[in-house]
Every structure is written in structure tokens, then in C-alpha cells.
Specification:
- The protein has 418 residues and is mainly alpha-helical.
- Among the domains are: 62 residues, no CATH class; 55 residues, no CATH class.
- 44% of the residues lie in helices and 6% in strands.
- It contains 17 helices and 7 strands.
- Helix 5 crosses helix 7.
- This is Lytic murein transglycosylase.
Length: 418
């Protein structure tokens, strides 16, 4: 999902993260901490009431769907077989958080096997990717990286009954405003023959197919890539590739521009000027001593931020306007940076230089740090042991105040000083 949709969270994919869009984007082994970014858990009514008597709830959904154009017999038949799935609620309530560092996650997710598989798929579907770039301006490596991280190129798409998952989450009163519209959209897909309420499976939060999308997004951005008259993201790689391209374009992709580049940084520079949201031109960074690790820096006037996922002694990247599309796809900084790095590798960039990052904090130490930062007046959000954007900004501010290199990477030295 974009991220409006991506604020969910993944759940079953192979090495992907586990939490990004509304709450069910799949991601397997690595429970992703985008969960921290999930939408508010406060009960809110959507277009109809949530909770309560299940039959009354289904009757309300049927009335709303029919009013929205779903044929009454289709809605009635689909909803008659709907069931609440307790396992979906368990997943929703028990989402893990993503506490891996960038180097840990990227090393695992951007593996040699996945790079090889990605390159093979770009060759196998070369004509489809050519169409994706021609029609939507999105290059093959960008689409392929998402495809690989989401489902290992379709190998792991989730095994929850999609319709029941959406019914369950729309009935539940935690986020009905997010899932009830997805349930109505699923009924439209059923009417069109693109979803079978009995057999279609996917992520626990209702995301479907090789690039894991929710029904509303499939309807809005779906592209029939194989010409069969349907958008079937589960079984058609062509549909998945072109739909992802259309969606990425809608997120604001700037054709022909880079998204991320590994760079080398000098031993000393104004570290407080680094981080997302602090932009200079490429030429401005070059004047501070930033150089490309491979090849040449892009256009001198292109705006860029310098990000240091694990501080000034770890890997460094310039990120450009297109990097924001990754953040809209998934708001986890570690996942986003890994996906963008994966795409550069698929485009021919060499393996990154890990450097020698200072040792980070344990979960308990991070919680202690967050408590101290909050006591100092910083908004770090929930004290959860996760290095999110609020904590990074607070760390950088305190590093500056204490005369430490303000690279946004929390260390035991900072914790001790506070």
C-alpha cells in the first residue's frame, strides 16, 4: 500500500519486514517494526458500526456494498460464507517490532541468492519491465526490489483467507475506518471475478499477491499485464509488475532520477546537518567532502539528504526526492533504506562498505534513553526500544547540545552523558 496503505504491517513474507501498511503487509522472518507506525488503535467508526452482533454487522456491510454498486446476489453470497478469524486478531494484537539495525537487515534481505533471483526475473520479464518504464517511468530494479522483499518474487504470499481477514478486521473496532472500505472493495473484486471469497489467500491484514496490495489499491492501480481481462496479482507476474509500477508512479516517482547512492564521508563534517529532511544540493554535499563510492555524483543541483543509518562510522548514503516514494511504500527507515539499496544493487551498484559503526544500544538501554529524552522534553513517541525518527531527531539534538558528533546514532556514551 502506499502509505496510506502501508501503515499496516506485514506478516508472512520471507525476509521482508513485518509491518508496514495498514497492518498486514506481509513479511516474514523479520518482524518488522513498522508496526510502530501502525495507525491509531483507538476504536473509530468507519462508514458503519463495528463490533457487536456479527449478522447485523454483515447486513450493514451488504447494504453499503449494494449502495456502492455491488450486485446484491454477489454481496449476499459472499457474506453468507464469511467467518471471523481469531488468528487474524491475534496477529493484529501481537505484531512484533523491528529492532534490527540497517546492516543486520540489509545483509539478510539483500542476499546473493535474492540478487541472483532478481536479476533472473528482470531478464525473464524484460519486455514487461520495458513497458513498465515506458508507461510509468519506473525502472525494473525499483519494482524488482519491492517484489523480492514483499514475497520473494511470489514464493511467499501469505496463507490467510483474504475475505475473512478483511471481514474480521472491519468488524473489529481497532481500525474499522481502514478495513471496512477494503472489505467493500473486496466485494467489488468478487463481482468482477478477481477474488474468490472461498479460496483467495494472502497476508493476515488482507493484502494480496506478489507485491502485496490491498483491494482498494488493486482496483485503483491494477493493470492487466497479460491481457486476460483480470488483474490477478497472485498468479500473474506481468499484472504484479505493471500494477506496482502504476502504484509507484502514483506515489510521486520522478522519472529518470536516482533514489539512493552510497557515498564516502570525511572524518569531520557538520553532522547536525545530516538526516532525512535536511537537504542540500548534491554540489553542497560535495563541497563538504562527500564523494561517491562508485561512479560519479548525479546532477549538482539535485536536492539530497545525507543519511547515516548507523552513525558517521557506518555506511552513508545520499538520498534524493525519489527516496520519499520508498517511505510512502513502507515507513520503516531500515526497511526503506534496505529496499532502496537493494534496487541500486539490482541496477549494478557494488556491495556497500559497512565501515565500523559504534556499538548501538540494547533494547533495554534504548528504552532507558527514550525515557531520558522524553524527560528532557523530546517527543520520542512510545518508549518501545525502537530507534524511530522521533528518537533519532532527539538523539541528534542532545548530541549537539553535549558537544558530541550529532550523527543521530545512540551509543552508550550518549546514554551515560544523559
Amino acid at each position: 500500500m502506499p502509505f496510506s496503505r502501508r501503515l499496516i504491517s506485514k506478516c508472512s513474507l520471507p525476509l521482508t519486514l513485518a509491518s508496514r501498511r495498514p497492518a498486514g503487509r506481509n513479511t516474514g522472518l523479520l518482524v518488522a517494526g513498522l508496526s510502530a507506525l501502525l495507525l491509531s488503535s483507538a476504536p473509530v467508526e468507519a462508514n458503519g458500526p463495528c463490533g457487536g452482533d456479527f449478522k447485523a454487522f454483515l447486513d450493514g456491510v451488504k447494504a453499503e456494498a449494494v449502495a456502492d454498486g455491488v450486485p446484491a446476489p454477489v454481496a449476499e453470497k459472499a457474506l453468507a460464507q464469511a467467518r471471523l478469524d481469531k488468528q487474524v486478531i491475534s496477529r493484529d494484537r501481537g505484531q512484533g517490532v523491528f529492532r534490527q539495525t540497517f546492516l543486520e537487515f540489509s545483509d539478510r534481505s539483500v542476499s546473493s541468492a535474492r540478487l541472483k533471483h532478481g536479476a533472473n526475473n528482470m531478464a525473464k520479464f524484460a519486455r514487461v519491465f520495458e513497458r513498465a518504464e515506458k508507461d510509468y517511468g519506473v525502472p525494473a530494479p525499483v519494482i524488482t526490489a519491492f517484489w523480492g522483499l514483499e514475497t520473494d518474487f511470489g514464493a511467499v504470499q501469505g496463507d490467510f483467507n483474504t475475505f475473512n481477514a478483511l471481514v474480521t478486521l472491519a468488524h473489529d473496532c481497532r481500525r474499522p475506518q481502514l478495513f471496512r472500505p477494503q472489505l467493500i472493495a473486496a466485494l467489488h473484486m468478487i463481482a468482477h471475478g478477481d477474488l474468490d471469497p472461498a479460496t483467495t489467500t494472502g497476508a493476515w491484514a488482507g493484502e494480496i499477491g506478489q507485491v502485496q496490495m490491498l483491494p482498494e489499491d488493486i482496483i485503483r492501480y491494477g493493470v492487466d499485464g497479460d491481457g486476460d481481462g483480470h488483474v490477478t496479482l497472485k498468479t500473474s507476474s506481468a499484472d504484479a509488475i505493471l500494477t506496482a509500477a502504476n502504484f509507484i508512479r502514483a506515489l510521486g516517482w520522478r522519472k529518470g532520477e536516482p533514489w539512493l547512492m552510497e557515498v564516502a564521508v570525511p572524518a569531520e563534517m557538520p553532522w547536525a546537518e545530516t538526516g532525512l529532511g535536511r537537504e542540500k544540493t548534491v554540489d553542497g554535499w560535495a563541497r563538504l567532502g562527500v564523494t561517491a563510492r562508485s561512479g560519479a555524483l548525479p546532477a549538482a543541483t539535485l536536492p539530497a539528504s545525507l543519511i547515516l543509518p548507523q552513525g558517521r562510522k557506518g555506511p552513508a548514503f545520499l538520498v534524493f526526492p525519489n527516496f520519499s516514494i520508498y517511505l510512502r511504500w513502507n515507513q520503516s527507515f531500515v526497511y526503506t533504506t534496505s529496499a532502496a539499496y537493494f534496487a541500486t544493487r539490482l541496477a549494478g551498484a557494488p556491495k556497500l562498505t559497512p565501515g565500523s559503526p559504534e556499538t548501538g544500544l540494547s533494547v533495554d538501554e534504548m528504552k532507558a534513553l527514550q525515557k531520558k529524552l522524553a524527560a528532557l522534553g523530546h517527543d520520542v513517541g512510545k518508549v518501545d526500544g525502537i530507534l524511530g525518527s522521533g528518537t533519532r531527531q532527539a538523539v541528534q539534538a542532545e548530541q549537539s547540545r553535549l558537544g558530541l558528533p550529532a550523527d543521530g546514532w545512540p551509543t552508550a556514551a550518549l546514554l551515560g552523558r544523559l
